[in-house]
């Protein structure tokens, strides 16, 4: 809002009216500045709270999310890690362990056969020269020329999925469409053998492959009618299951990749020779993750406790625009650093979070009978303000002798509906997650936005009043100047009359 009133500045009185109005307005401006400073401090408080929330979010993402596999402690795989070793140089089989494995020795006595897919291959070379996959179907130099129907098309079915191709389509186009279809097969051409092969994407005895020629002569239904690709429904080889013996037990599987008792097997070739593997528990990955957890936890506590104990510098209020104009950027930065200190000092919600986090460490987990402190994660002295003091020896022993117990202390969940029971039955990670959720609920960005809007409206109102006040001052001074000017005119007239 601006004024359009005529302003007379000291024409009759000789006064520096401009300076006088500015001085009077400085007092009025203080009212606006105080609200602006309140708004600024409120914005800083929001930023301080958001900084804590971000720190909590980073901690949760690192320790409670599958997207952080190196530090996530929520899954069983974090605590149950196994190494698989063998002295054999055989490449016939590979073995790896999941979290469901158990320590021991595994012997693959023999591998009689691998799992195969139903398949078919051209009976002989389909061309004398290497084919180009970019050639159109009508230009393929095949030993048995490819014929088309009246529409210039070839049609056939694979696994009951119909395909139709124009003679202007390329060989690669045909391959791409078939391979991307629901027929669930792979079709390919070998430059080495000049043959086309089709195989099911699934292996095992249940793997199936069917073809039926519809128009043209791409394939043969009876094995007698000439086929340009020399592919016939009569030359399909059925799929078969893998057959092997593990620890004296005969096993058949539809795939060469399978899992038994938490061990992943990968068969590569048949072998009559046995291959022995030793499966042993490895506590180092779990130890490393828990050490990382402690570091991240202590970093969060350090940050939060630092905010709670920051000095409040009451002599450093947010700077006004006028004050900023007289200061350097460095001075402004140093001033605001002081002014922002202590915004969360003794914050009740943050104090409660710190208390809940510390309590989570020393309360025993119901049903387990042990707390995180019992497996080496102690809260330390009072001076450490809730930071974890890790006893690595105790933790190593726990991971070695009772790994499942360690996992439960961290990850146990509760189905209870009441908060007290749910807390007592939950492991450390779930207790912390609950504490973080409770803390997050105390912050409402919508409420902050609403309050900031209220400040903005108040500032707008005060600025409007400021303009009105300035106009009022100018009206008074202008009226005074006008009156003085009239008096001076009258005085001059009288003086002229007596002259």
How many DSSP H or I helices?
11
Radius of gyration of CA atoms, rounded to a whole number: 42 Å
Report how far apart the termini are: 51 Å
pLDDT averaged residue by residue: 89
* β-strand amount: 15-25%
Please mark out the parts with pLDDT under 50 across 5 or more consecutive residues, or reply none. none
N-to-C SSE series?
HEEEEEEHEEEEEEEEHHHHEEHHHHH
Tell me the structural class: alpha+beta
Q: Could you give a short account of the major beta sheet? A: 5 strands, antiparallel
What is the fold named in CATH at topology level of the domain at 117-235? Answer: Alpha-Beta Plaits
Spatially, the strands of the biggest sheet line up as 1-14-3-10-11
Q: Which architecture of the domain at 117-235 per CATH?
A: 2-Layer Sandwich
**What is the overall silhouette?**
flat
| CATH top level label of the domain at 117-235 | Alpha Beta
Query: What is the percent of helical residues?
Result: 40-55%
Number of strands: 16
């Amino acid at each position: 809002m601006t004024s359009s009133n005529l302003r007379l500045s000291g024409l009759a009185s000789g006064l520096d009216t401009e300076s006088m109005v500015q001085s009077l307005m400085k007092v009025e401006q203080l009212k606006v500045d105080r609200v602006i400073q309140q708004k600024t401090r409120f914005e800083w408080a929001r930023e301080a709270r958001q900084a804590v929330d971000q720190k909590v979010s980073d901690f949760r993402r690192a320790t409670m999310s599958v997207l952080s596999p190196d530090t996530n402690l929520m899954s069983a795989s974090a605590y149950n890690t196994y190494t698989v070793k063998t002295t054999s140089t055989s490449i016939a089989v590979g073995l790896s362990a999941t979290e469901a494995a158990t320590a021991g020795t595994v012997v693959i006595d023999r591998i009689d056969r691998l799992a195969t897919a139903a398949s078919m291959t051209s009976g002989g070379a389909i061309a004398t020269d290497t084919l180009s996959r970019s050639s159109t179907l009508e230009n393929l130099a095949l030993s048995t020329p490819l014929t088309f129907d009246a529409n210039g098309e070839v049609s056939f079915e694979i696994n009951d999925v119909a395909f139709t191709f124009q003679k202007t389509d390329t060989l690669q186009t045909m391959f791409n469409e078939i391979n991307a279809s629901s027929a669930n097969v792979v079709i390919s051409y070998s430059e080495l053998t000049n043959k086309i092969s089709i195989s099911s994407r699934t292996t095992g005895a249940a793997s199936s492959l069917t073809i039926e020629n519809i128009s043209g002569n791409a394939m043969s239904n009876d094995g007698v009618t000439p086929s340009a690709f020399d592919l016939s429904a009569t030359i399909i080889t059925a799929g078969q299951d893998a057959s092997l013996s593990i620890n004296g037990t005969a096993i058949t599987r539809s795939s060469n990749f399978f899992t038994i008792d938490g061990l992943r097997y990968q068969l590569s070739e048949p072998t009559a020779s046995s291959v022995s593997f030793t499966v042993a528990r490895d506590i180092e990955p779990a130890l490393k993750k828990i050490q990382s957890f402690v570091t991240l936890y202590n970093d969060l506590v350090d940050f939060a406790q630092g905010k709670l104990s920051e000095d409040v510098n009451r002599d450093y209020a947010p700077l006004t625009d006028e004050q900023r104009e007289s200061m350097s950027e460095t001075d402004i930065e140093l001033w605001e650093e002081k002014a922002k200190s202590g915004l969360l000092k003794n914050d009740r919600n943050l104090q409660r979070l710190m208390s809940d986090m510390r309590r989570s460490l020393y309360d025993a987990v119901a049903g387990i009978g042990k707390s995180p402190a019992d497996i080496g994660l102690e809260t330390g002295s009072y001076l450490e303000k809730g930071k974890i003091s890790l006893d690595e020896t105790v933790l190593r022993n726990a991971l070695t002798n009772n790994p499942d117990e360690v996992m439960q202390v961290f990850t146990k969940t509760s189905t209870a509906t009441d908060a007290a029971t749910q807390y007592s039955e939950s492991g450390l990670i779930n207790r912390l997650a609950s504490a973080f959720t409770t803390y997050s609920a105390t912050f409402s960005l919508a409420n902050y936005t609403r309050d900031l809007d209220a400040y903005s409206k108040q500032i707008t109102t005060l600025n409007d009043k400021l303009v009105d006040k300035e106009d009022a001052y100018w009206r008074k001074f202008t009226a005074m100047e006008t009156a003085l000017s009239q008096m001076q005119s009258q005085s001059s007239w009288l003086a002229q009359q007596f002259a």
